[in-house]
Amino acid sequence: MRSIRSTITLITVLVILVSIVSVSGASHVIIWNETINNSVETMNLINTGTERLLENYFESVKESVDIVSNIAIDDLDSVLLVEKGVVGQKAARTPRQIKELDDYIVRYCNTVQTLFSGVADNTEGVISYYYCIDPGLSNSEHGFFYMKKGKTGLIRQNPLDASALEVNEGLEASWYDTAVAKGSPGWIGPYIYQGEWVCSYMVPIYKAGVLIGVMGVDISCEALAAQVKDFRLYKTGFVCLFDKTGRIIYHPEATMGSSFDWLPKEVQLQIIQTNNNNDDLIRYTKNGQKRQLSFSTLSNGMKLCCIVPVEEINASWRALLWGTSLITIIIIIIFVMLIFFVMGAITKPLQQLTDASKKLADSNYNVDLTYQSKNEIGALTEAFRKMRDRIRHNIEDLNHQIYYDRLTDLPNMRKFFSLAAQERDRLKAEGKEAVMVYINMIGIRNYNRRYGFKKGDMLIIDFARILSKNFGENRVCRFSGDRFTAVADAAEVEGILSDILKECETIMSGSRLPIRVGIYPDKLEDVDTDVACDRAKYACDRKKGGLASTITYYDEDMLKRSEIDQHIINSLDRALKEGWVKVYYQPIVRASTGKVCDEEALARWVDPELGFLSPEYFIHALEQSKLIYKLDLYVLEEVLRKMKRQVADGFYPVPQSVNLSRMDFESCDLVEEIRRRVDDAGIKRSMITIEITESVIGSNFEFMKQQIDRFRSLGFPVWMDDFGSGYSSLDVLHQIHFDLFKFDMRFMERFNEGDASRIILTQMVNMAKGLGIDTLCEGVEEKEQAEFLKEIGCTRIQGFYYGKARPYEEIVDIFEKGSSLHFESPEEASR
After folding, report:
1. Which pLDDT tens digit goes with each residue over 151-181?
2. Coil/strand/helix, residue 27
3. How far is CA 249 from CA 55, 207, 303, in A?
4. How confident is the model at residue 702 (pLDDT cuts 50, 70, 90)?
5. What is the largest CA-CA distance in the chain?
6. Considering only CA atoms, which of 158, 130, 118, 111 is closest in space to residue 219?
7. What is the distance between the alpha carbons of residues 765 and 278, in angstroms, rounded to a whole number?
8. Is the CB of residue 692 less than 8 Å from the CB of residue 660?
9. What is the Cα–Cα distance from 86 to 713, expressed in whole angstroms?
């Protein structure tokens, strides 16, 4: 067997000879690299200087408009806007309100225009400035508009009516709608306005969440071109400017507004898709001339490019290299020919292995290896062949595990997002609209608890088959647990879901499986697949808690709601620290005495930007983000502080009930947190009542049973809130003991609709009596309701009939003025 060692020895001798020549070759490389580095540094230096000049110019325009817009926002009279029905009022504005509002807008715009004129006159390049009032605010007053005509200064023009604007060339809508859709200050354009290419810096003006209008300035693209057209690189190099889509703003060889199609496609894509060329210059050929290009991206998205003919860069070193290269090339040719013939026979199998390795690295596992010699390379080839076969098998198995769900064999989330993105692009290319669908099986946890996880898994598999059959196997995935997501044609989705719902009628051994469906249509907003999926989930969860199948579309209101949710999440810590969140207390009256025997602590959020927020808003948002524990512990701290004040103010402290969320228990050891805080405050544990809804218990029954037992063993009373609103009440009663049932207020809402509500309440009270459990009914607003509850033996009553939730200071004031309600004394409470 021939040894490769002898072959390597021969190659080494040849390498020594070649190294003699390498010195001259290295000098060529050094000179070349130095020339390239100098050209890179020179072009990047000019690019950076020009970029800084333009950025300073853009910043000066931006600062000028921002100054005026900030003052314009501050000058708006919030109180007047409320009085004139702009903020908060749902009813239509009266003619008087409209007239007074229009008069105010005129005065307000005159003040802003006076300030704006001084700023615009002193800002270079401004050809117009304006403040366009939103048509929703006024139909008759449109703001102001000043524009240069010819060589004149900024002359007053007719105000711009936003409702009458047409789509501007270069934009997908009118400049006003584009600025409003952008939603924040920024550059828009370039686009054509009144026959001239302009760039605009616009600021949507909002007050108390209401759009007032759009303020901005226009800059002629000719002014931008003037900033760069005098720069020269080497002999004939130049600087040019594009917008972020590749439209020319300035180029000495092209007209403004045209496309830069004269560049190769790959160069166009690199300029558009990347921020700068870093340390690598881009080369291309135009009209037979090789050119070198560097570029950078300005803060407003524009692209600044420096272009130089390669011939001018290379001229300095070409003559120097030519003489030395001629001699070196002759010597190298001789040695290359020798090495070529010697290495040809030796490297052929190695080259085959190298090619096979590259294909294997590119996931091509069908590469063929034909070398059969018994030397070291032959042994290596055989080992490589076995490794190829083993990797191919393992990769195929691993890919399936990585990209497909083990239980249902559907694509998993990672694989599905890729498939869904392709499907959405396909539908869009065919002129169709795609929708993302999020599906949640209702009651699977209860099904698992009743029949076991094995049958629950079988139910999930059967449901997955239904989805795969109707949507297509590559259009649906198992998102997690009992949740699935799919992509579909908007025109077909309702028919698909109708077929799925029919099959769900008998899926559980003849019983119906309810499902909750959320749909996000792409027409609402073009977003990434993961975002579209999240929004479909948001729509699905909007009907959370019901037992019937539902289909919910994500709409503009939900989009706005999600923005509010994000504000709540981002502002929570500040809201708690600065007192935006306040705790209100609603009295709970003992039916037999009519005295206040308990109080329920309720959170209220008054936001400085959004105003009063319904608990439905912020509690849902905080639960979804798993931050609700911060709010609930904050309420507890406020309750403990308030109870100490009660004693100091001479009131009998009565037990205070606090509501807990399911997410609280997932965020921390909630039982220990509450025990520690109550003990540290020196308050008896029996004075803090824990309210837990039936839905919280159903989410993780065994775990919640343990937590309730822990609370009661520590001396905390535990109430079941919203009793009768869920589907597992009797099962819960059988396994968990509560101190009180709190009946859902819907019984009172239907009190006068017939006898059904009264009969159900009577039977539930009797059942609670038999179990030795107290009862409380909330939502009582009428005397007749209160009298009925006393008659059937309900022990506690809560509702507006006795008092709404109020902050502690108001409660003190009411009792000092003489309230008909009185707090139970400790002696009365113990009877």
Report:
1. 778 889 999 898 888 898 888 899 999 999 9
2. helix
3. 16, 35, 10
4. confident
5. 117
6. 130
7. 76
8. yes
9. 55
